[in-house]
Every structure is written in C-alpha cells, then in structure tokens.
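Help needed: design a sequence for this.
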C-alpha cells in the first residue's frame, strides 16, 4: 500500500453565479460529492476556486487517487486539466479533511500579491508556489461553508416563526373577537 500526493490546475467551464455569501453553487455541488466520495475512498485534500480557475490537492492510496483523478479529468465542469505535482507521500498531511475548501480569502490574495499575480492562474504556478498554496489551504482557518443556494435537498425555506409576544397577543385578540360575537348573538 503506497500513498501519493497530487495537485492539478484547471479552468471552470461554467459561468460563475454571483453569491453574496457562501460557495458558488456549481462548486458547492462538487464539494458535496467530493466530501462523501472521498471519505469512502480515504482520500483527503483541498480545493481552491477563484477567477474561474481550480487548484486541487489530493492525498491517498495511489490506486484510489489515480482512479479519482481519471474521473475528475473527464468532468465537463472544467477543462485544460494540468498536473502540477504527482509523487509518493510518506504520511498524510490533511488528517481530517475529505475536501477542505478555501474561498477567495485574504491570505490567498496576499499570496497572489506577494508573487505579483493579478489573477489566480494556478497553471502558471512554480513548484514552490504549489507548495505554498497547499500549505495555505492546509493552514487556513477560513473554511468556506457550503450553504444551500440551489444544492439539491438542502434549500428549504425556514418556517416563519412569530415572536412569542406577538403569538400571545393574537390569541388574546382572537378570544376577544369570539367573545364579542357570542355577546352580540345574545343581544339578537
Ligand atoms: C474541480 C473538480 C474537483 C472535483 N473533485 C472531486 C473529488 O475530490 N472527489 C470526488 O469524488 N469528485 C470530485 N469531482 C467530481 C467528479 O468529477 C465526479 O463528478 C464525481 O466524483 C462523481 O461522483 P458520483 O458518482 O458520486 O456522482 C470534482 C469535479 C471537479 C470539476
């Protein structure tokens, strides 16, 4: 049994939908599938998405990672998949992450600024920049929350709950109306 690590860069083929908070819906769908599949396959890693580009890092058993990478490379949601790094690994470094996701965070912006990059173009990364990016994803505490948007099954409207005082007020008013109607009917 041997472990490997692999990083690649690719270009999204979908048009990013604007989101004011949370994760772009297409990316959220990818993350949901990744998290459940990777847990089953004992694969860990991180995903970064920004400026219509993906950077993904994977660690796991060689067979499992290669099989996943074949599947990912054939996914029509991205193109121009370029392997940036692929090598044996002694021990896992992303212990608890089936797929950690880092949104366009200030530390990634800092990384781009440091290297004089205006946009996120992982296909141009040097090996050192890849390592820096991997460390950044691993160390980031800004885990992007996958919130509903249009992700199947999870977008349920919250039931409207009235504040307690308003509820009590309405009940008292209703009793008053019924009382008045009974009183009025005795006058007829
Ligand atoms: C950028 C990108 C990253 C992806 N990463 C993963 C991943 O880490 N794990 C995974 O299972 N699927 C990943 N996918 C999705 C796979 O290509 C494929 O759709 C999915 O594994 C199929 O899962 P299913 O058979 O459970 O539907 C990724 C897709 C894209 C476009």
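Sure. Designed sequence:
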């Amino acid at each position: 049994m041997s472990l490997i690590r692999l990083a690649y860069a690719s270009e999204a083929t979908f048009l990013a939908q604007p989101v004011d908070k949370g994760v772009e819906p297409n990316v959220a769908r990818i993350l949901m599938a990744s998290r459940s599949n990777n847990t089953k396959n004992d694969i860990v890693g991180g995903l970064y998405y920004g400026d219509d580009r993906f950077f993904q890092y994977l660690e796991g058993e060689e067979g499992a990672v290669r099989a996943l990478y074949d599947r990912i490379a054939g996914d029509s949601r991205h193109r121009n998949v370029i392997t940036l790094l692929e090598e044996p690994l002694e021990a896992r470094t992303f212990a608890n992450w089936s797929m950690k996701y880092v949104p366009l965070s200030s530390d990634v912006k800092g990384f781009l600024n440091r290297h004089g990059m205006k946009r996120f173009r992982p296909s141009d990364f040097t090996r050192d920049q890849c390592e820096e990016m991997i460390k950044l994803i691993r160390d980031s505490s800004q885990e992007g929350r996958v919130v509903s948007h249009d992700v199947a099954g999870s977008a349920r409207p919250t039931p409207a709950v009235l504040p307690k005082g308003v509820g009590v007020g309405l009940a008292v008013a209703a009793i008053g109306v019924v009382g008045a109607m009974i009183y009025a009917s005795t006058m007829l």
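The radius of gyration is 25 Å.
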